[in-house]
Amino acid sequence: MKSRDGSRITVIATLLCLAMLVALSWDKGADKDALVVYCSHDSTYSEQILREFERDSGIRVIARFDTEATKSIGLINLLIAEREYPQCDVFWNNEVLGTMKLNQLGLLQAYQGDGYSRIPDAFKARDGSWVGFAARMRVFIVNSDQMEPAEEAIKERLAAKDLSRVAIARPLFGTTLTQYTVSWDEAGAERLKQLHRDQRDCGLLEVNGNSVVKDLVANGQCDFGWTDTDDYFLAVDGQKPVDMIPVRTDSGKTICIPNSVGIIRGTRRLKAAQQLVDYLLSEKVELQLARSPSRQIPLGRVDVDALPEEVQQLMAWAEDAVDLACLDSSYSECLQWLQAEYLR
């Protein structure tokens, strides 16, 4: 009896092991067929959109998100490291310069689908290797208890010799780097370098990120600073005494910085990747992100009446936005200078 029971237990154990191997094999196969997306946009908003795409298309999505500490740089460096054996199919970035870098390295595959056609030329590569959507805007966040929220008041304070109550994120990455790159391209390298030195000499506070700028101004420790509209709206929703003024270049242009999406060259799931790109560039997704707490700005044509009032105002400012599609060379030169300034 013991021998028979032992044999029975052995058979059951073997069957269980086989069942587990089949299950693991099935999961591995499912993962192999899934669309892999690297995403640096806030997972609070982006994961819901990816799950809705998954539900609507029937295409399984595996998403890898960045962290607040590494911003989008971590994923960009990972994509570069994986260039010989790409693991990612689609890169959804929360800005454009890093995506441009990937394109310069030949890591993106051009695609001009239905979504490409609805986005203005200023926010996409000419060949479709990357396309922007759902933008943020560079703004001055102003503590309205501390100073008048007006462009002239901002100009007067920036011309003063004491900037110790003015804050900006260090410009090595993110949207502050984009702002610097735009200035490099428009005003020229020497003028930007001189302005940078002058502002630092006047005590400009350089901090670790736009959210820190927002907190300093919202809590009254600084009078104003440079940040993005999504951080500004967090302060508004927190009932802080803040207002915003658009940052403008010397030519009067605003700086509108979209999310961007590109297909990784060498993907084995090209058709599914193209479907996701068109989905992200759709009116549906732009409206969804416009209604989120970050109030992102649609770049393609949408039903304006379906937008929050704050976003309608931002869309009017975005009509004067600088062309980001021509910043490729300026980006590399500007970043090289900044790295020498901060990392030496």
Outline the structure in words.
The chain is α/β, with parallel strands linked by helices and 344 residues long. It has 2 domains: 157 residues, Periplasmic binding protein-like II (D-Maltodextrin-Binding Protein, domain 2); 119 residues, 3-Layer(aba) Sandwich (D-Maltodextrin-Binding Protein, domain 2). The protein contains 14 helices and 10 strands. Strands 1, 2, 3, 4, 5, 6, 7, 8, 9 and 10 form a 10-stranded mixed sheet that branches. α2 links the parallel β1 and β2. α7 packs across α8 and α7 crosses α14. The longest helix is centred in the N-terminal third of the chain and has 32 residues. The N terminus is likely disordered.
List the helices and strands and how they pair.
Elements lengths: L1 H32 L1 E5 L3 H15 L3 E5 L7 H9 L8 E4 L3 H8 L3 E2 L4 H4 L13 E13 L7 H9 L6 E4 L4 H14 L1 H13 L3 E3 L2 H9 L5 E5 H9 L4 E5 L9 E9 L5 H11 L2 H8 L18 H10 L9 H15 L2
Parallel strand pairs: 1-2, 1-3, 6-7, 6-8
Antiparallel strand pairs: 3-10, 4-10, 5-8, 5-9, 5-10
Helix pairs in contact: 7-8, 7-14
Sum this structure up briefly:
The chain is an alpha/beta fold and 344 residues long. The protein is built from 14 helices and 10 strands.
